[in-house]
TrEMBL record:
Pfam families: Connexin. The chain crosses the membrane at residues 29-48, 82-103, 153-176, 212-235. It comes from the Eukaryota. This is Uncharacterized protein LOC121143589 isoform X1. Keywords: Membrane, Transmembrane, Transmembrane helix. The lineage of its organism: Eukaryota, Metazoa, Chordata, Craniata, Vertebrata. It comes from Mesocricetus auratus. Residues 23-233 form the Connexin N-terminal domain. InterPro entries: Connexin_N, Connexin_N_sf. The keyword Nuclease does not apply.
Length: 250
């Protein structure tokens, strides 16, 4: 089921990021991370697909008590949390695509009006009209300069910061909320409705723990990459802005 959803989702996301303009830093790299994220989640969920069958208790336990002990041991949905943060990752990617497209469309309208006025002035002076192909190239070049377009730059910085924050939260949940659930060996279960005591364990705990480490490694990689993008963008486009340097020198 998860593989079918990911397989249908990837071509649609690729159509979003397939433009050659690349009007923000690492556009294709973030799309690659979307695909990689989906593959990692799919691989990691395999060891958790039959978690209820892998949770076994004493032989004399009844089915209602087994369900109760399972719910007590896993109060936090494991795979549901993974899918939730994967959805956030994709949603942020799609949102920046939409907002970037809207901002670029506004920039294109402004550039069209400016180029039309310049072309009209040249035509009145006896010059030739600028070809459409050259105009389209000039529009693309003009709107890809993040040194001048602070709205695009700030939007990209906000997007990267949100990705880093959510991945940091996800990493904390993985290592300090989910990993302890499978790291412990035999579990003692005793409730009011099922006094027991029952002794339960999880089969394949090593595989399940490794799947958590795989997701944690991916989250760490995204955090490092996003932080690097933030530092580079702030330094290159804000602190090392050539326009500001020219103003200061003048």
């Amino acid at each position: 089921m998860a593989a079918a959803v990911i397989a249908q989702l990837i071509p649609k996301l690729h159509s979003l990021a397939s433009s050659e303009s690349g009007y923000y830093i690492g556009r294709h790299l973030w799309f690659g991370l979307v695909v990689l994220y989906g593959m990692v989640v799919y691989v990691a969920h395999i060891s958790w697909a039959h978690i209820k069958e892998d949770f076994i208790c004493s032989e004399n336990i009844t089915l209602p008590c087994l369900i109760t002990c399972f719910g007590k041991r896993f109060p936090i949905p494991i795979m549901g949390t993974w899918y939730f943060f994967y959805f956030i990752f994709i949603a942020l990617f799609c949102l920046i695509e939409v907002f970037m497209a809207l901002l670029r469309e506004e920039q294109v309208k402004v550039m069209k009006s400016m180029v039309s006025m310049m072309s009209l002035a040249k035509d009145l002076e006896g010059g030739l009209m600028v070809p459409n192909k050259e105009l389209s190239i000039s529009w693309k070049k003009s709107i890809l300069n993040l040194h001048r377009e602070k709205s695009l730059l700030l939007l990209y910085l906000l997007y990267t910061l949100l990705q880093v924050i959510f991945q940091g939260i996800f990493l904390f949940i993985l290592l300090f909320r989910q990993r302890p659930l499978v790291k412990q060996g035999i579990i003692h279960c005793s409730t009011n409705s099922c006094p027991g005591p029952y002794f339960c364990l999880i089969r394949g705990s090593m595989e399940k723990e490794m799947s958590i480490y795989i997701l944690a490694t991916l989250s760490i990689f995204i955090i490092i990459l996003g932080t690097s993008f933030l530092i580079y963008s702030i330094y290159h486009y804000l602190l090392n802005n050539p326009n500001i340097s020219k103003m200061q020198s003048s």
